[in-house]
């Protein structure tokens, strides 16, 4: 299963500083709205993080589909730019930014 997120980010810059092993997608509430947090987990104390509202996504994983087994991809008009294994969890509040091992 793939999740395609509508991200307007500078891919060339991101490639230069994101050295993630995988992406943790956490679904929760951010400032009273349903949102997602994408943590590009690199094992550091300061991973690259994106927060976005749920309505900015073209699809959402069901809450009963927590865990891994899917791919997070970042696309531009030039095609697929980034690809990482994905892990999904539901949390109460965002930001969360906790490592996968804490849930």
Q: How would you sum up this structure, described in words?
A:
With 103 residues, this protein is mainly beta. It has one domain. It is 7% helix and 50% strand. The chain is built from one helix and six strands, in the order βαβββββ. The chain has a six-stranded mixed beta sheet, with no helix packed on it. The model has no long low-confidence stretch (mean pLDDT 84).
Major sheet strand order: 1-5-6-2-3-4
**What is the domain total for the residues?**
1
Summarize the helix and strand pattern as letters. EHEEEEE
Whole-Å distance between the termini? 22 Å
Helix content: under 10%
Instruction: Provide a count of the helices.
Output: 1
Number of strands: 6
Residue stretches low in confidence (pLDDT < 50, at least 5 long) are: none
List the defining traits of the structure above.
6-stranded mixed β-sheet, 103 residues, single chain, mainly beta, globular, 1 helix, plasmid
Structure in a nutshell:
Helix content is 7%, strand content 50%.
Topology:
Layout: E1 2-4, H1 11-17, E2 22-30, E3 33-41, E4 48-53, E5 67-76, E6 79-93
Parallel strand pairs: 1-5, 2-6
Antiparallel strand pairs: 2-3, 3-4, 5-6
Keywords: Plasmid
């Amino acid at each position: 299963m793939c999740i395609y997120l509508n991200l307007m980010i500078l891919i060339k810059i991101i490639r230069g500083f994101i050295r993630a092993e995988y992406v943790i997608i956490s679904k929760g509430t951010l400032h009273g709205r349903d949102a997602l947090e994408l943590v590009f987990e690199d094992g550091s104390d300061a991973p690259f993080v994106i927060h976005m509202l749920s309505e900015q996504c073209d699809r959402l994983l069901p809450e009963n589909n927590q865990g891994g087994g899917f791919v997070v991809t970042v696309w531009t008009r030039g095609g697929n730019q980034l690809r990482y294994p994905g892990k999904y969890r539901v949390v109460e509040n965002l930001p969360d930014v906790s490592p996968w091992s804490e849930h």
